Amino acid sequence: MQIKKFDNINVVPMIDIMLVLLVIVLTTATFIAKGVIPLNLPDAKASKAIKKDIKRVDISISKENQIYFNKDLIQKENLAQKISTLDKNSTIFIHCDRDSKYQNFVDVLDALKQKNISKINIVTKK
Prior knowledge:
With about 130 residues, the chain is α/β, with parallel strands linked by helices. The protein has a domain at about 55-125: Nucleotidyltransferase, domain 5. The protein is about 35% helix and about 15% strand. Strands 3-2-1-4-5 form a 5-stranded mixed β-sheet, with helices on one face. It is rod-shaped, with a radius of gyration of 27 Å.
């Protein structure tokens, strides 16, 4: 029995595997970089009914990114001033359109947290 001499390596299978890995990495990287994972918000199945007998304040953010404070249109710059008039025990209900900018929602939450208001509810549809 003769032993064959090993002169060369077949690299075609290795190239195939590397190309598949490259495709996987590039596809995953585009989702991570853009954050384009489709979400359908704000639906919630575990929502609770709103009690009618509590002292409540409604803050709404429309699709056009306009902010309403108890159905009165206000400017974003006046939001902190309007919130400062509230009692710290007030219950806040935030209604936010699913097509509005997320930054407006964060600005409202930030203004509430700066005034130490902790009873915050996010209204969703069931």
